[in-house]
Design a protein that fits this description.
The structure holds two protein chains of two kinds. By secondary structure, chain A is an alpha/beta fold. In chain A, 34% of the residues lie in helices and 27% in strands. In chain A, β1 (3-14) and β2 (17-28) form a beta hairpin. In chain B, 58% of the residues lie in helices and 6% in strands. Classes of the chains: A alpha/beta, B mainly alpha.
Chain lengths: 232, 125
C-alpha cells in the first residue's frame, strides 16, 4: 500500500451548488500536507468526505484502500472545524472518553500537552475560552497514534505562542507511517512544516506541488503564491 | 522557537547553508554525532523530510556521513572542512567587496574601514 488517501473524480453537490468537481488526489505516507484554498473552495467538504460524514455524488475516495467507514475511522483522527465535544464535560473526562473510544489513544501524551499549555484537567469545557477549547480538541486529536490526521483549521483561533507549540507537536509526533492533512488560511505560519501544498480553487485541484518546488520555481513563498493565484 | 526563513528560496537550501555554517564554525565539531532527523527538524521548526533532504545534500558533499545503525556524524576530514571554510570566506569577501564597490568604496578604503572596525576587538582564534 503506497497511498494513504486517494480521490478519483470525487464530486459533491449541495443542491444546485457544486462543492467539489472531479477531484483527483494521491497522498502518500509520512507527509505533512497543507490543504489550502479560499473560503468556499471545498476544503471542509473534502475532509468530511474523507471522514465519511458526507457521501460523494460521483467518483471515489479511499483511505489506505478502504472506503470511509468504521474501519477507516480506526486509523483516521479527525479534528472538525467547529466545537463538537459536550461542553459540560471536564477536560479529564474527555481524556477518559477518548481512551474508551479509540484503541490508539495515548492519555499520557494528552496529559503532557495539556500541562504544557497550562490547561487544567479539572476545567469544564464550556467555561474555557474559544481558543482554549480549540487547544483541548486539537490535543485530543493529536494524542491518537493514527495513520491519517485530518485537521480542519486547527490553528485559526489560538494565539501565536500556542500555535508554535502546536506546530512543534505536529512535528515531534511525525512518523513515516502517518500523514497529516491540515486545512488552513494561515499559510505563512505552517509553511515551514509542510511537505506539499494542495490548492483548491472552486472545487477543483488547482495545484498539488511540493512546497520547496513552489519556492524554487515560482521564486516566492507558498503564502505569496497563494495571494497571487487567488487575487481578488 | 522556530527559525525564520527567507520566503523566496527553498527551505532545504537555507537549511544546507545553516548546517554548513555550524560545521565550519565547529558548533558541530568534526566527528561529532548529530541528533536524529526528527529532533533536528523539530528544533528548526521544519518538516522532517525537508531536514532529511538537507542532510542528504551535506552527505553528497562529504560533510556528513551516515552509520547504518548509529545515526549521522560530521565528517572527521578536517582538511575538507578547512578547504570549504576558506572557500566560503573567499566568497563572502567577494560579495562584501561587490557591495562596497556599489556605494563607491575603493579597495583601499575598505581595507582602512576594516582595520578601524576590528581594532581593539578581542582576537577570536
Amino acid at each position: 500500500m503506497s497511498e494513504l488517501l486517494t480521490c478519483e473524480g470525487l464530486t459533491k453537490h449541495y443542491g444546485a451548488k457544486t462543492a467539489l468537481d472531479g477531484v483527483d488526489l494521491h497522498i502518500g505516507f509520512g507527509k505533512i500536507v497543507g490543504l489550502l484554498g479560499p473560503n468556499g473552495s471545498g476544503k471542509t467538504t473534502l475532509i468530511k468526505l474523507a471522514n465519511g460524514l458526507l457521501q460523494p455524488d460521483s467518483g471515489s475516495i479511499r483511505i489506505a484502500g478502504m472506503k470511509p467507514g468504521v474501519e477507516s475511522k480506526a486509523i483516521v483522527s479527525y479534528l472538525p472545524d467547529a466545537d463538537w465535544l459536550p461542553g459540560w464535560m471536564r477536560v479529564e473526562q474527555l481524556v477518559k472518553m477518548f481512551g474508551d473510544f479509540y484503541k490508539d489513544f495515548d492519555p499520557a501524551r494528552a496529559n503532557e500537552m495539556l500541562a504544557n499549555l497550562e490547561l487544567s484537567p479539572k476545567d469544564v469545557l464550556k467555561t474555557l475560552s474559544k481558543g482554549n477549547r480549540e487547544k483541548v480538541q486539537l490535543i485530543l486529536a493529536m494524542s491518537r497514534n493514527a495513520r491519517l490526521y485530518l485537521l480542519d483549521e486547527p490553528i485559526g483561533g489560538v494565539d501565536p505562542a500556542a500555535r508554535d507549540y502546536i506546530l512543534h507537536t505536529i512535528l515531534s509526533n511525525y512518523s513515516k507511517d502517518a500523514t497529516v492533512l491540515i486545512s488552513t488560511h494561515l499559510i505563512e505560519d505552517i509553511e515551514p512544516v509542510l511537505d506539499e501544498a494542495i490548492f483548491l480553487k472552486e472545487g477543483t485541484v488547482f495545484a498539488h506541488r511540493s512546497v520547496d518546488e513552489i519556492r524554487e520555481n515560482e521564486g516566492m513563498s507558498v503564502d505569496a503564491y497563494f495571494r497571487e493565484v487567488f487575487k481578488c | 522557537m522556530s527559525e525564520q526563513f527567507d520566503s523566496s528560496r527553498p527551505i532545504y537550501a537555507q537549511l544546507v547553508e545553516r548546517l554548513k555554517a555550524k560545521i565550519l564554525a565547529g558548533t558541530y565539531p568534526p566527528g561529532g554525532h548529530l541528533d536524529s532527523v526528527r529532533d533536528m527538524a523539530a528544533a528548526a521548526g521544519v518538516n522532517p523530510n525537508t531536514m532529511q533532504r538537507a542532510l542528504a545534500q551535506l552527505e553528497t558533499e562529504g560533510l556528513v556521513r551516515t552509520e547504518r545503525t548509529a545515526g549521522r556524524y560530521v565528517t572527521e576530514d578536517t582538511m575538507l572542512i578547512e578547504q570549504l571554510r576558506a572557500a566560503t570566506a573567499e566568497k563572502f569577501a567577494e560579495e562584501f567587496l561587490e557591495k562596497m564597490r556599489g556605494i563607491g568604496y575603493s579597495p583601499a578604503q575598505v581595507a582602512e574601514l576594516l582595520a578601524r572596525q576590528t581594532k581593539g576587538e578581542p582576537n577570536h582564534e
